[in-house]
Amino acid sequence: VIAEGVEEEAQVEYLAAFDCDAIQGYFYSKPLEFEDALAIVDKKFPV
């Protein structure tokens, strides 16, 4: 199950309590341009 539109910590906690597989929304980040998203991934997982 993927939850989208999550904007508040209480929503994250609620979904985690019900073993939601993935959560996305403004709570984590606003929409990003491809290059900005790639920079985040490269920083977290350097090759």
Description:
This protein has two helices and two strands. The chain is mainly alpha-helical and 47 residues long. The protein has one domain (2-44). It has a two-stranded parallel sheet. The chain is elongated. The N and C termini lie far apart (30 Å). The model has no long low-confidence stretch (mean pLDDT 96).
Instruction: Indicate the percent of residues in helices.
Output: 40-55%
Largest sheet: 2 strands, parallel
Structure annotation, total helices: 2
Q: Report the principal-axis shape.
A: elongated
**Global structural class:** mainly alpha
Query: β content, as a range?
Result: 5-15%
Lateral strand order in the biggest sheet: 1-2
Order of helices and strands: EHEH
Overall pLDDT score? 96
- Number of E-type strands: 2
Distance between the termini: 30 Å
The rounded Rg comes to: 13 Å
Return the domain count: 1
Sequence-ordered SSE layout with sheet pairings:
Layout: E1 2-3, H1 9-17, E2 22-23, H2 34-44
Parallel strand pairs: 1-2
Structural descriptors:
mainly alpha; 47 residues; two-stranded parallel ribbon
Write a concise synopsis of the structure shown:
With 47 residues, the protein is mostly helical.
